[in-house]
Design goal:
Four Helix Bundle (Hemerythrin (Met), subunit A), mainly alpha
């Protein structure tokens, strides 16, 4: 990027001037389009205090609305999980959809003041990522994750949920590890 205080560049004698027609090709006119973007950016592109305040207000408003639309997303995830049957494979569309939905919730929870939701959704994602083929036990663990998400959103549990939130998240993690340990033992 050049600044107006930079000295003008000398033309390269090996390259033709783009503003002059090529004498070898008189039928060709070189056109350099204007660059209006710079004139539309205020303050050099850095966010202003006003911009930051508006962004923070928008996030605060979305945080207030988060439980309402997150509840809809949890119910949509529940419908997908309830539709899974034993034998569903990690690459099946419905399993991938469940993973993507939990993945989205994982990102949103912390952004809107619900890190416990992020932790539960992360556990669900890690579980789906590690189980190749679902059986009744895997589906029960997914349903338990959905129940935990319902509890967090339904009770508007902001933050990490304190000791109860830790028990819920730790219990889900323990159930996942126990299930995966049993599955590995069965495969050996």
């Amino acid at each position: 990027m050049s600044d107006e205080s930079d000295p003008p560049k000398r033309p390269d004698p090996k390259r033709p001037d783009p503003k002059r027609p090529d004498p070898q090709r008189p039928d060709v006119e070189i056109f350099t389009p204007p660059h209006p973007l710079k004139s539309k950016v205020k303050g050099g592109g850095a966010p202003t205090a006003e911009m930051l305040a508006r962004a923070e207000a928008a996030v605060a408003k979305m945080s207030d609305d988060y439980p309402t639309w997150a509840a809809d997303e949890v119910e949509a995830l529940a419908a997908v999980v309830d539709g899974l049957g034993p034998g569903a494979h990690r690459e099946d569309d419905a399993v991938r959809q469940a993973f993507q939905m939990a993945h989205d919730m994982r990102g949103q929870g912390g952004s809107f003041g619900y890190p416990l939701m992020t932790r539960i959704a992360n556990s669900c994602c890690r579980f789906l990522d590690r189980v190749e083929t679902l059986d009744a036990g895997a589906i029960a663990i997914l349903q338990t994750h959905v129940s935990a998400m319902r509890a967090v959103i339904g009770n508007r549990v902001k933050g990490d949920g304190g000791p109860i939130g830790a028990k819920i998240a730790d219990g889900l993690d323990a159930a996942v590890e126990k299930y995966l340990g049993r599955r590995l033992d069965m495969e050996d």
